[in-house]
Amino acid sequence: MSTPLWQHPLMATLEDGALRPGGLSLTRKTYDNLKISSPMRVLDAGCGTGITGKFLQQEYSAIVTGLDLSYQNTLQTRERQLPVVQGTVEQLPFPNATFHIVNCDCVLSLSNSLETTILEFSRVLCAGGTLLLSDLYRRKEQTEQTVATPNISSEVAPIPVNSESENNSCSSSPLQLKKLFAALTQAGFVYTSSTDCTKELKELTAKLIFSGIAPCCQSDANTADSRTKTFDKSIGYIQIRALKKE
Description:
The protein is an alpha/beta fold and about 250 residues long. The protein contains seven helices and eight strands; from the N terminus they run αβαβαββαββαβααβ. It is globular, with a radius of gyration of 18 Å.
């Protein structure tokens, strides 16, 4: 089995090492819009190597706790002087109402149960707390979701798919927005805003191609037909902000 894209050694050289579309630039834009006026307790759910958590600590004086399934990632996060716990998003090892913000980038689509994970995010958030999600989603639902997600554009982005490793990546299980919004409502969240970030996804895809990371750059995948099979053009990237009811 080949290495998943997110574990490729060259991925750390892209997007400030944040391993997601938009990188830390998108994170900054998101948190600037929150207009944080005092230190907030933030759970970085699926923290990776702690790059985002350290950024939030330095730029917004956030009190960040990381959580990641990978033991190796927790070790690297600790090297950044951030508290971190090894665990799963389906069973968060924290008391109720612990955090003001739950930040989850490119992890929800990999969870074993979307509904369970959303309920856990709600449980550990304080009343009025903010859930920030960003992830891949299936764009064929766009017509159904026009009212719920007015900011979604009509752009599409090709997503590199490696048939040997796609089961280990979020490209194999993009979010279904209708199911996601239902789970948020059921868990006591008020949907507030969504932003389509497919432009950032397209930019990252281009970087993957030119860096040689994407499988379409391999010598046996240079025909027009193979490129068409390699990319999934029905996937977009979305960022959602939801508030837990008071």
